[in-house]
Amino acid sequence: MWRVLVFVMLLGCGSYEITQPETSSAVMPEMHGNRTIRTEEQFRRYVVGQTLMSDGVEMTIGADYSVNGRYRGKPFSGSWEFRKGLFCHSATRDVHSMDRQCFRVTQHEREIMLTLMPE
């Protein structure tokens, strides 16, 4: 099972668990034991299609560039893109739009870490 640590995320902070992990033999640059996911192809291999869960948040990153889930029992939806080496997404919850945010994605063993970055 994959574990995702999210330092700052649209819906809150926490530790996320990904169901149905995918495996890959992709070679990515190493830095202090971390591999930075730098391309959309790598992001799709490790994250897309998975459901992230933690502390009242459940979110699925769709292959069709959709983001869907629930935050404290309330549904939200939005879209994502991978550009300039960052995972960016925006969402709407209860008819309120939430600001677009971008993250650097790194992998360490079976953990994925998202770090909020300026666009």
Automatic annotation (TrEMBL):
<protein>
    <submittedName>
        <fullName>Uncharacterized protein</fullName>
    </submittedName>
</protein>
